[in-house]
C-alpha cells in the first residue's frame, strides 16, 4: 500500500500504460490489456530464425571438376553471398533497434530523476544485445568457413572473407551505448531489476535446429549449441550490466518472478544510506566504489553519481511533473491561460500568465530596493507523447522599498506566449526562487484550437 507502481511499455518509444497507482486491480487490468499486444521484437525474432534456417539449409559443393559441378558450385557461392548480404541487413536492423532502445531507456530514467524517494524498475525483456550480429555471424561462419580460408576459391570470392572480418568490427557493437544508459540510470537514482522473459525458451532451444549451422555438408559440425549459447549470452549480458551498474539484481535464468519481487521489497525496506557532498556541481559522471571490510559480504549500490546544478535539477523536476504528474508546488504558483490566437495553418499562440504570491518569495533589501530572482522553465507534451525543448526564462525582481508592503500583499505575474499546434497539450512549468532556493512544479492541461478555446 505504501508503494506507487507505474506500468510502462516500450516498442521503440516509451509509453505509460498505467500511471502511478497503488491500486492492484488497475495494474492487473492494464497487464491483461498488454496480452493482446505484439511488440516489434516478435518480427525481429521471426526474421532471425528464418535466416538461420536459410543458412542451415544452404548446400555446399566441392571444388568443381566438370561443367555440371561448376554450375552447382557457382550457385552455392551465390547462395553464400546472398545470405551474407541478408545477415548484414538484419544485423544492421538489430543494431539500430538496440540503439533506439538505449536512447528510450536513457530518456525514461532521466525523466525519473526529479522524482522523490527510491526508484526501481522491474525490466521484463528478451534482453538487449550488445553485439546483435554475433550469433548470425557465427552461424554463417560455421557454415562457410571451409571456403573462407580455402585458397582454391577464386579471388572473386574475397567478399566471403570480408564477410567474416566485418563482424569483428565495432560497427555492430553497442556496448558503449548500454554503458552510457546504465550511467544515466544510476546518476538518476534508478535501480534496475531485469528479468529475462525468454531465457527459459533459449535454454530449451539450445540444441534446436533453428539455431544450427551444421550438418553433413556444412563445414564444422555440432555447432547449434554454440550459436544458441552465443545468442543467449548476448541477450543476458546487458541485463547483468544494468543490474550491476545500478545496485539491482538480474534474474536471467529463472521464472521465479515472486522471488524477484520479494527481493525488491526487501531492498526497499533494508538498506544503508551513505551521504556525501561535493562543493561544485560540475555535471560530470563520477564513479562510486564501496569496499566491504568483511570479504564474505558484498554490497550493491548505484555506481555513478552526477552533481547537477540547480537549473538542471529544476528541469528534472519539471520533466517528472510532465510525464508522471508528480508536482510539488511550495511557492503556490498558479497558471492562468488566455484565449488562443490562430497564427497559421494548425498553429496557435497560447498566452499563459504565471502568478506567484510575493509573500512566498525571498526578497533581499539593497539600499532603496528589495531584489529577488526567479528562474522559470517550461516544457510541453502533445497527445502523441512528443515533447518540446525546454524554454528557460530569467526574471529579476526589483521592488522599491516604498512599495514593499503593498507588493507583498500581491502576486508576481509573468506572461508567456507559447506557440503550439492544434490538439491536447500538457504544459509543465518549473519555478525556482533563486535566493530562497525553493523549487515548485505544476502542470496545466490544454485543448488548443477547438472552437478557438482551451481549458
Describe this structure in words.
It contains 11 helices and 15 strands. By secondary structure, the protein is an alpha+beta fold. The strands form 5 sheets. Strands 10, 11, 12, 14 and 15 form a 5-stranded antiparallel beta sheet that branches. Strands 7, 8, 9 and 13 form a 4-stranded antiparallel beta sheet that branches. It has a two-stranded antiparallel sheet with strand order 1-2. The two termini are 34 Å apart.
Give a short synopsis of this structure:
The protein has 455 residues and is of the alpha+beta class. It has eleven helices and 15 strands.
DSSP, total strands: 15
Low-confidence runs of at least 5 consecutive residues: 199-222
What share of the residues does DSSP label as strand, in percent?
15-25%
Proportion in helices: 25-40%
Order of helices and strands: EEHHHEHHHEHHHEEHEEEEEEHEEE
pLDDT averaged residue by residue: 81
Separation of the first and last Cα atoms: 34 Å
Shape: elongated
* Structural class label: alpha+beta
Q: Give Rg in angstroms.
A: 29 Å
